[in-house]
UniProtKB/TrEMBL annotation:
It is an enzyme of class 2 (transferase). GO terms for molecular function: protoheme IX farnesyltransferase activity. GO terms for cellular component: plasma membrane. The lineage of its organism: Bacteria, Pseudomonadati, Pseudomonadota, Alphaproteobacteria, Hyphomicrobiales. It holds the Pfam family UbiA. One of its GO terms (biological process) is heme O biosynthetic process. This is Protoheme IX farnesyltransferase. The chain crosses the membrane at residues 28-44, 50-73, 94-114, 120-141, 148-167, 173-196, 222-239, 245-263, 275-296.
Amino acid sequence: MSIRDTDAAALVMEATPRDFFDLLKPRVMSLVVFTALTGMYLAPGTLHPVLAAISLLAIAVGAGASGALNMGYDADIDAVMTRTAKRPVPAGRVSREAALGFGTMLSAGSVLLLGMTSNWLAATLLAITILFYVGVYTLYLKRRTPQNIVIGGAAGALPPVVGWAAVTGDVTWAPVILFAIIFLWTPAHFWALAILKKDDYARAGIPMLPVVASRTETRRQILIYAVLTAVSGVLPTLFGFASPFYAVVAAGLGAWMVTRALVLRSADEAGERRAATRLFAVSIVYLFALFGALIADHAVAGLLW
């Protein structure tokens, strides 16, 4: 065994279960689980509750596997950013090799589990999600283009499609619309965070939009995507799988997010951080509330009809 292998083994022995849990990016995983659950709940057809729970677990594990692989490959970036320097790999609690091995094992296991408990279309979509997030976003886009989060956002938008496919075995317009909502929501959400962490990204050499573009252009792009997000939020009603009451809620939530984007656009330099912080927080509430409204609307419709 080489010295490097010995050091890696020692790091694994020193790591705690919490360190490996942190590799899964549990806060990101919670959003993935909720949007995937929404896709499963809205889907026509039935899946045995036990199989549905196992399928949702598989999707969650797949999301966590993506996070572990991301942390393994991005250890050099994470080490120079204050926001991520305390993560298990850059902090030295878990070796890069262990993180990559852990992520690879969970990726394969989650895809196989989903295929065996639901169907192989859902499993294939989960595999595509993992491969896109790791291979396209992490290894290529993130370090090369300010559109990294726009294109890479497709990976984070796929969970409701996977959840839908797990129940139905197919993909229709409804899950595609759920995908579009998250896809269009992602840039405004992450660019608001990037404004707050601009110095971190610049130090790490990551060409996030606030790093490479002017404040005016960044704010303009955020506003454009906030408006597109608000418009996409009412599409479920227009396409017939949500009620007019949902559309009212979606419109209100969309107006809230657009208002915060307008405040950010008009903020002076001193008020920029506060406006970006509020937009970031509102964007999180927006997505959880919107998908929660879809679930509630579907539940009420089921009781009525």
